[in-house]
Amino acid sequence: MNDLATMLARLSQGGVEFVLVGGYAAVTHGVSLVTQDVDVCCRFSQENLLRLQAALAGLHPRHRMTPQKLPLQLTDELCENLKNLYLETDLCALDCLSEVAGVGGFDAVLEHSLEIAFPGGKFRVLDLDRLIEAKEAMNRPHDRLTVTQVRSQGSRPAQQAATIVGIVPVQEGIRESAAQRKRNRL
User: Fold this and answer.
1) What are the angstrom distances between the C-alpha of 99 and each of 42, 104, 114, 150, 155?
2) Number of folded domains that form the chain
3) pTM greater than 0.70 (yes/no)
4) Where residue 23 sits, what CATH number does that domain have?
């Protein structure tokens, strides 16, 4: 398991409520790009943030956007005021977002996510349509490249794509997102 997958395993095993978004989410959908960080949208409740802090214990998490690289030390007051966390750890950079451009807050992101099983546990990944919307909303050069790659390869189930990049065992399967289940019932 690579460092990014190990980070997902730590978060999953730590009970952190999160959805994988960003470049590594694109990789699970079959995009061939290099990313060196993990971007997640997570519930910014005190309980979930404390689970995040516990899951990162031993990885020396520090705020990477501060010149002093202060260690992650959450307090009740800090938990109430946080919107995003940009961390550097011994494994990789971890960006924790309370919302995703073009999609919305955690609940909207969760509704448009798929559950994927992998050797380190299960996690949720933003579905392909919403990932494209998020990348288009961000509109940075690497986001445009990601959208171009996704559209040129055609639709590939996240389970199959993630298996190709070594994240997901083939036999585990993938579950429908809440939005897909709703559409299928109509």
Assistant:
1) 8, 5, 17, 22, 25
2) 1
3) yes
4) 3.30.460
Q: Give average pLDDT by consecutive 10-residue segment, the chain, 186 residues.
A: 88 96 90 88 97 97 93 94 96 97 97 89 92 94 90 62 43 42 48
> Could you write out the DSSP letters of every residue in the chain?
--HHHHHHHHHHHTT--EEEESHHHHHHTT------EEEEEE---HHHHHHHHHHTTTS--EETTSTT--B----HHHHHH-SEEEEE-SS-EEEEESEETTTEEHHHHHHTEEEEEETTEEEEEE-HHHHHHHHHHH--HHHHHHHHHHHHH----HHHHHHHTTSS-GGG-EEPPHHHHHHHH-
For residue 9, the enclosing domain spans: 3-185
Tokens of 52: 């995040």
Pairwise CA distance, residues 63 & 126, whole Å:
25
Residue found by looking up tokens 């809440």 in the block: 178
